[in-house]
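Structure (tokenized):
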């Protein structure tokens, strides 16, 4: 079993509840989020910085790793999309706080609710 310290995701198995991931919705680039529900054939993902959620097919879920963060941040969509860059940065900061035990359970459960997008 290979455990990813960035996402909390066991890369040898399917994503689990509360794993940080990159997920793709139709007509959008891969976006950082957190799995908030697991169903037999799909995952419900809460997206960072967007205050939105979606049901995602497992084929469109990637683990939240340093390599994939760099890859997503260098994509043409990300370079042109300030919201995506901000969401990746927010996800990275949230993970760092969570991994150091500085994010309480209530903050962890509602971490997206307090995010206010700068316009």
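Design, position by position:
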């Amino acid at each position: 079993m290979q455990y990813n310290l960035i996402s909390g995701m066991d890369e040898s198995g399917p994503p689990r509840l509360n794993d940080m991931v990159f997920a793709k919705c139709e007509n959008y680039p891969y976006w950082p989020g957190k799995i908030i529900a697991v169903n037999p054939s799909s995952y419900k993902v809460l997206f960072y910085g967007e205050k939105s959620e979606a049901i995602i097919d497992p084929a469109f879920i990637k683990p939240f790793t340093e390599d994939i963060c760099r890859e997503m941040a260098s994509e043409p969509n990300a370079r042109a999309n300030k919201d995506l860059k901000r969401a990746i940065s927010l996800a990275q900061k949230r993970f760092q706080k969570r991994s150091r035990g500085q994010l309480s359970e209530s903050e962890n459960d509602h971490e997206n609710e307090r995010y206010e997008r700068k316009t």
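Reviewer-requested clarification: The longest strand covers residues 31-39. The chain has four helices and five strands.
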